[in-house]
Specification:
Layout (H helix, E strand, L loop, with lengths): L10 H18 L6 H11 L5 H21 L1 H12 L11 H25 L3 H20 L14 H10 L10 H11 L4 H26 L9 H25 L5 H20 L1
């Protein structure tokens, strides 16, 4: 699917590429392995390039966001009701204040530096750096002897929520991985790995949804009616696979060490260096 110039995607070959990229996005967006690194590498191998290609990648990311929204719809319905009733704070479980504290740092900094990040940080070399340093952070978080004060997501404090939000700033650097940064941050702040992972999924929705809409607005000139069916296929693939990936990850999180994902990231960095950087 080469989108260079004024060409539009068409044919079975384009359809297969759209499905592959949708699967890659859905599978990696919420795992601590860097969806950006995987998408850049996969797009390179599929000869997937151009401005419409970048727009396509934004659209399929929305599919992954919608998957979490569906899986946790009761939580988000509760947050909305809290806002409508002006009751942001309640004693049982995480509330809207937790969500605001966790999403605010990345939302503010991301909005202020959006253009600079897109211009200077979205490149092979920066993604490679993010993959490696992010992997090191995950190993440090796993080996740190921090007392766990939040075994489950609803035990996370306001201080921990804000701290996780600050760690989410690292994800503004492509290749770091949003979930890798926030899960590592949560563990360093005293949450269990499972609590940090689940909270990561929750806070990712408003941040990613806002960032995706902003990208779509800025890329609106590359959205055409001819491309809509292909974009929807990619979005659907990302949506379905992301739902499966999130549920599977949460079921395995107690048995999976974070360092295993770090080793995978180092291997991915090596492949990324060979096929994209060189």
């Amino acid at each position: 699917m080469n989108y260079d110039g004024d060409g539009s995607a068409n044919g079975l070959d384009d359809l297969i590429k759209a499905i592959i990229l949708g699967i890659v996005e859905g599978l990696t967006e919420f795992l601590p392995v860097s969806s950006t690194g995987h998408m850049i590498l996969t797009a390179h191998l599929l000869d997937f390039s151009g401005e419409r290609a970048k727009t396509f990648e934004i659209v399929v990311q929305l599919g992954a966001v919608l998957a979490v929204l569906v899986l946790y719809w009761k939580r988000f319905a509760g947050f909305i009701m809290d806002v409508l009733k002006l009751d942001l704070v309640h004693k049982r479980g995480i509330n809207t204040v937790h969500l605001i504290l966790a999403m605010l740092p990345a939302a503010v900094v991301g909005l202020l530096l959006h253009s600079a990040i897109k211009q200077y940080l979205f490149g092979p070399a920066t993604v490679l750096i993010g993959l490696v340093i992010g992997g090191i952070l995950m190993i440090v978080a796993e080996r740190a002897k921090v007392q766990i004060t939040a075994e489950d997501m609803d035990s996370i404090s306001y201080k921990q929520a804000l701290g996780i939000g600050l760690f989410q700033l690292l994800a503004l650097w492509p290749g770091f991985s949003r979930s890798g940064s926030t899960i590592s941050g949560g563990m360093l702040l005293g949450t269990s790995q499972k609590a940090a992972a689940e909270f990561t999924f929750i806070i990712s929705v408003p941040v990613m949804f806002g960032a995706t809409l902003l990208d779509l607005v800025k890329s609106r000139e590359y959205l055409t009616t001819q491309d809509v069916p292909l974009f929807l296929i990619g979005l659907a693939a990302a949506f379905i696979v992301a739902m499966i990936a999130v549920v599977t990850f949460l079921n395995l999180i107690k048995r999976l060490k974070l360092s295993w994902f770090a080793v995978y990231r180092f291997a991915l960095a090596a492949v990324f260096f060979i096929f994209v950087v060189l």
